[in-house]
Design goal:
With about 140 residues, this protein is an alpha+beta fold. Helices cover about 20% and strands about 35% of the residues. It has one helix at about 15-40, and strands spanning about 40-45, 50-60, 65-75, 85-90, 95-100, 125-130, 130-135.
Amino acid sequence: MDSKKVELKKEIAYSEYARLKKLAKNGIIEMIKTAIDYKWQLEINYNDTEKRIINPHCYFYNSKNENLLSGFQVKGFSESGNISNAWKNFKIEKITDCKISTPIVEFTIEKTFNPNYKGYGNTNVIVTKEGMKATDNS
């Protein structure tokens, strides 16, 4: 038997690629909402960089209609050099991978979290002691 590797390439239509990309992004959004609801720590890859460990607190649209995640980063890569224990906003479109940390780590809500922060926009999903809370203040 020949031990050569066989490389298979399959082309897909752009519409199928767009559909798969949208499904993946929707999966990331659902993972974020689940993590907020249960107060579970997330591991994300952002902008194709190394892993970041965050405690997700708010999923929202800002005034520019950008889809964002606000989280408290506790470990991992940071472009700013402020590696841990800092609030960061992440554009959903730049999150390339997302998963619940294993083993599962349940976080406590940061004392500096302000669920009424105007920057979170009118419609958001925030973490509460009871779990996730959706708001629509428009």
